[in-house]
Write a structure and sequence with these properties.
Elements lengths: L2 H19 L3 H8 L4 H6 L10 H4 L2 E5 L8 H14 L7 E6 L7 H13 L4 E6 L18 E9 L12 E9 L5 H6 L6 E5 L2 E2 L4 E5 L5 E5 L5 E5 L5 E14 L8 E8 L6 H7 L5 E4 L1 H4 L2 H7 L4 H4 L8 E6 L3 H12 L6 E6 L14 H5 L9 E7 L3 H13 L5 E6 L8
Parallel strand pairs: 1-2, 2-3, 3-4, 4-5, 5-6, 5-7, 6-9, 8-10, 9-11, 10-11, 11-12, 12-13, 13-14, 14-15, 15-16, 16-17
């Protein structure tokens, strides 16, 4: 590279930096906040205008794994140096990711959290990939905290909890050691709108009770206690994923429900599968797994009165995804749901390869399902795991004959050569 080319490139970089610094300050903060703190601090060498920008950015992400030196003392000194030199304004977001338990004890790390709390932090994310830390109880009485995310911790809840403006709570791989206090925990968050519980353990707790009058979004995945009771009248979205052998009960009507995803294997003491389907009848988007649906046939055989539950009108339903075995009963159940979903526009049917057939009593009369079943809004059908079996061909024919405005049909052929007898 010639000296002239080098000067030209330097001028281009300088012009780009100068243009960037002339952007509105909130926009600069937003862009720079995506950088790890180490990179954020390095922006001070770009030009004179950048010298103090990093110290006024209201968001910080300290991640030991991204820090150049893996020595604990170097990382600790860096964090404390940044906090000492910043301008002292309020903190919008404070994110801390540790890969070890501090040898210097929990108090030093807690001092960083307390610093953020005293500067009215709104978003607090903590992740620890090693031994748990006894976090300061001041987290649970922070009046400014709006979002709290905790990953991979053994958490002992304090007896005093008050989070008056918290709207989002995300616990991932967290073991609540005094699990019975979870009810008080949720109740102490009167503005809670989003609750995410992923692979969480509630020690010495046999019923998970979620009672939140303002909750709109609920996601639960993995291990849960034996029983789950939900009272969330304003719920808009619910996902219950990879949940096995659990009793689930709703104690309120879900008038505002829009998006539903059930991948649940219920135990015998739970509300029936048919009743749960009826509970979410106001949904616009509905996903039901194979494991969730298969018990319904035994329920209907034992209690024919439950047929009324699966014949409940889904007046708002536009998007339906079902995990299916393409058995006779599955086909009839799918047709039944479609028959009672006058606004349905999109249907996705996925083959569950590893679920074995069970002996099923024929519960539906095909003639009844076929009558009065014009799908006048259905635009797209996707069938996954197609093998060309008789039931699958019948289903394709059903859609072609009844979907009067169908625009697209995708048929994905199964990669498996395994045939069931």
């Amino acid at each position: 590279m010639t000296m002239l080319q080098s000067q030209f490139d330097d001028q281009n970089v300088s012009v780009g930096v100068d243009r960037f610094i002339r952007l509105p300050l909130p926009l600069i903060y937003h862009i720079v906040s995506f950088l790890p703190v180490e990179e954020m601090v390095r922006t001070c060498v770009l030009s004179k205008g950048w010298r103090n920008v990093w110290s006024t950015v209201p968001s910080f992400h300290f991640n030991h794994d991204l820090y150049l030196s893996k020595e604990e003392r170097d990382f600790f000194k860096f964090v404390e140096s940044v906090l000492l030199r910043r301008d002292g304004l309020d903190i919008q977001k404070f994110s801390l990711s540790l890969g070890y338990k501090p040898r210097s004890g929990d108090s030093r790390v807690n001092s960083w959290i307390i610093y953020a709390l005293r500067h009215n932090v709104q978003v607090l994310h903590i992740s620890n990939d090693n031994t748990s830390i006894a976090w300061t109880p001041q987290i649970f009485t922070c009046e400014s905290l709006r979002e709290f995310k905790l990953h991979n911790e053994d958490l002992k809840l304090p007896t005093l909890i008050s989070l008056p403006v918290l709207t989002t709570l995300h616990l991932s791989s967290v073991a609540i050691l005094n699990g019975h206090l979870h009810v008080a925990f949720f109740s102490a968050c009167p503005c809670l709108e989003t609750l995410i519980l992923e692979e969480c353990e509630f020690v010495n707790c046999y019923t998970l009770t979620i009672s939140a009058s303002q909750l709109k979004n609920l996601r639960i995945s993995g291990v849960v206690p034996d029983s789950v009771v939900i009272s969330t009248p304003k719920l808009v979205s619910i996902e219950m994923i990879r949940i096995r052998n659990t009793s689930i009960r709703f104690t309120c009507e879900l008038k505002f429900i829009s998006d539903v995803n059930f991948d649940i294997e219920l135990d015998q003491s739970s509300e029936s599968t048919a009743l749960l389907i009826s509970t979410v009848r106001n949904a616009q988007s509905l996903t039901l797994s194979t494991l969730f649906l298969q018990p319904i046939y035994v329920e209907l055989e034992n209690d024919p009165s439950l047929f009324s539950c699966i014949q409940t009108p889904f007046s708002n339903l536009k998007w339906l995804k079902i995990g299916t075995l393409f058995s006779d009963n599955d086909i009839m159940l799918i047709k039944n749901l479609l028959r009672h979903s006058p606004q349905i526009e999109y249907v996705i049917l996925g083959k569950y390869e590893d679920y074995e057939y069970t002996n099923q009593v024929e519960l539906f009369e095909e003639e009844d399902m076929m009558s009065n079943c014009k799908l006048s809004h259905l635009k797209l059908v996707e069938i996954q795991g197609f093998r060309g079996y008789e039931n699958e061909v019948k289903l394709v024919k059903f859609f072609l004959e009844n979907a009067t405005v169908l625009e697209q049909m995708f048929i994905m052929v199964s990669n498996s050569d395994k045939r069931r007898s």
